[in-house]
Design goal:
Layout lengths: L12 H7 L14 H6 L5 E5 L7 H8 L7 E10 L2 E10 L6 H9 L3 E4 L2 H8 L16 E5 L8 E4 L5 E5 L10 E4 L7
Parallel strand pairs: 3-5, 5-8
Antiparallel strand pairs: 1-7, 2-3, 2-4, 6-7
Length: 189
């Protein structure tokens, strides 16, 4: 395992990619769920290996040298709207807290809102818990991306499995269907 010794934001993306255990594009089908692979842009995404025990954001940040401001988490929500149960995904930085009962609920037009249970999130996405990503989600889901994600030069996010991550420029998220960028996480004081 190769790990950077300083914060990832100190390195240009090309140099950072050289410091990571990058998975060859020709072998991605052996490492990622088919739905994730099918949704990934053909350029601009580096896929790299991580240790399973360091897949969660805080552990990943500490072990691999990425700041929490560069880690974009994808969270699955369950909500009721118009008497119907629905699901959505939220993408926010690891350093931010979502305004779930305010901005998120309002943006979804939800009557009730909760985090999806682990087994439901994995069954609906076909991804591993702790590795869920915005790429490859069901086509009818809304994907809300916190506006602060878009201010980062690059972000690291799940790859559908716990043993891999995606490194990309956040503007690539806007190529996904049903994506909305909104201010849904207040500043931490």
């Amino acid at each position: 395992m190769r790990t950077p010794t300083t914060r990832a934001t100190c390195f240009p993306m090309d140099e950072l990619a050289q410091r990571l255990d990058v998975i060859s594009p020709s072998t991605l089908n052996a490492h990622l769920p088919a739905s994730v692979l099918a949704a990934l842009p053909t350029a601009g995404v580096t896929v790299f290996r991580v240790d399973d025990d360091a897949s969660d954001t805080a552990q990943f940040s500490a072990r691999y040298g990425f700041g929490l401001d560069d880690c974009a988490n994808t969270i699955v929500l369950r909500y009721r709207k118009g008497g119907e149960e629905r699901h959505a995904a939220i993408v926010t930085l690891g350093s931010r807290r979502l305004d779930v009962n305010g901005a998120v609920k309002e943006r979804l037009g939800a009557q009730r809102l909760s985090f999806a249970k682990r087994e439901v999130a994995t069954a609906l996405t076909g991804m591993e818990f702790g590795g869920i990503t915005a790429f490859g989600l069901p086509a009818d889901w809304l994907v809300l991306v916190d506006a602060t994600v878009m201010t980062r030069e690059q972000v690291v996010m799940g790859a559908g499995v716990r043993v891999a991550k995606l490194l990309l420029r956040p503007h690539l998220l806007t190529s996904l269907p049903n994506v909305e960028v909104a201010a849904i996480a207040p500043d931490l004081a």
